[in-house]
Specification:
The chain has 347 residues and is an alpha/beta fold. Helix content is 20%, strand content 27%. Strands 2-1-17-16-14-3-12-13-15 form a nine-stranded mixed sheet. A six-stranded antiparallel β-barrel has the order 5-6-7-10-9-8.
Length: 347
């Protein structure tokens, strides 16, 4: 039976589910910490429906909440071809001072494009093994300044409605380190006031960085999910952070990871005994059922797209069949799904 269960868990089709469009959040909750919170206790097999600010009730003195302080870049640039036609570049990652990788819906190999300032140009010089274009910005250009002046937040395509502050709310209140092209959405529910209350209760809050790239939303196409390959994403874990997390574990405190990006960063740097090793670099860690978690004790996450690496990762922690039943319960209780949606705490 166990072997059959593992085999079932590796079939991509098993991670599909039907979600009526009305459940896809087109805007965030009016107040960040007033979104809904589904709480699932794995040991007791108990489900509760709460409000996000109630997360305090599930955290204990001595616990450590770990969050990803990456900041989303306004990475969508609307450029022009030499013929005058408009074209969108989606910048992904800095390679060197004047070189970046990017995505584009059109074939732009070998072309020069006019940047949004109307004067500067960028040349598409190559394509890498991941299907990303390699750009060379011509002349002296501050690319971050260009993005901050002319760029747009890379909101997911399923967010179609416009409202005031739409792009601002696609950023956590503690975002600091620029480099992500998608938000660490589990963190969108925190307010600075709630974080102060968490700390006042004797709970540590520690920060890591993982710059979420398009690896996170690249569709899984392999029928056997263990054949899928994650694209590399940059992370940083400082010695101070690693020491505090290790100290928390040694004192029997729980490590609560906020978001799948935090989970991947922590698990990428854990040794066989669960000790966290400081470092920075790129991770291609892909977590799917059968993975043995080494560091985290609980996970805060949003409700994810069908057949996505995020859904598969949470399934590895909560159990696939249980997770899909929780998603069904969430729909029955009118939870909102995806980036601007509600949250789930798995204990």
């Amino acid at each position: 039976m166990g072997i059959l269960r593992v085999a079932d868990d590796l079939q991509l089709e098993g991670y599909d589910y039907a979600l009526p469009e009305k459940f896809i959040a087109q805007h965030p909750a009016d107040k960040r910490d007033q979104s809904k919170l589904l709480v699932f206790d794995r040991r007791e097999n108990v489900v509760e429906h709460r409000v996000f600010s109630d997360i305090m009730d599930y955290l204990s003195p001595g616990d450590c909440v770990v969050i990803n302080k990456t900041k989303v870049l306004p990475a969508r640039l609307y450029c022009r071809k030499n013929t005058g036609g408009k074209i969108e570049l989606f910048l992904l990652k800095k390679i060197s001072e004047n070189s970046w990788t990017a995505l584009c819906r059109e074939n732009v190999s070998g072309k020069e494009l006019i940047l949004p300032d109307g004067n500067s140009k960028v040349k598409v010089v190559d394509k890498n093994k991941y299907g990303e274009y390699i750009l060379e910005f011509m002349g002296e250009i501050d690319i971050y300044e260009l993005m901050n002046k002319y760029g747009h937040s890379p909101l997911p395509p399923y967010i179609k409605r416009h409202y005031p502050g739409k792009e601002e709310r696609y950023q956590t209140v503690y975002a600091e380190s620029e480099g992500a092209v998608a938000a660490p959405t589990a963190g969108l529910h925190f307010t600075l006031e709630l974080m102060k209350k968490i700390k006042a209760k004797g709970i540590e809050i520690e920060y890591i960085v993982l710059h979420i790239g398009w690896a996170t939303f690249k569709p899984v196409s392999a029928e056997n999910i263990n054949e899928h390959k994650m694209l590399p994403e940059y992370f940083e874990i400082t010695k101070e952070t690693a020491d505090k997390i290790n100290s928390c574990r040694q004192k029997d405190g729980r490590i609560i990871a906020v978001g799948t990006s935090t989970v991947r960063a922590l698990e990428s740097q854990a040794d066989v005994n669960g000790n966290l090793i400081p470092g920075k670099g790129e991770t291609e860690l892909y977590i799917y059922p059968g993975y043995k978690f080494k560091v985290i004790d609980a996970m805060l996450t949003n409700f994810h797209l069908p057949k996505s690496t995020n859904l598969i990762l949470v399934s590895a922690f909560a159990g696939k069949e249980k997770l899909l039943s929780l998603y069904k319960s969430a729909m029955e209780n009118n939870y909102r799904f995806y980036s601007y949606g509600d949250a789930m705490l798995v204990l």
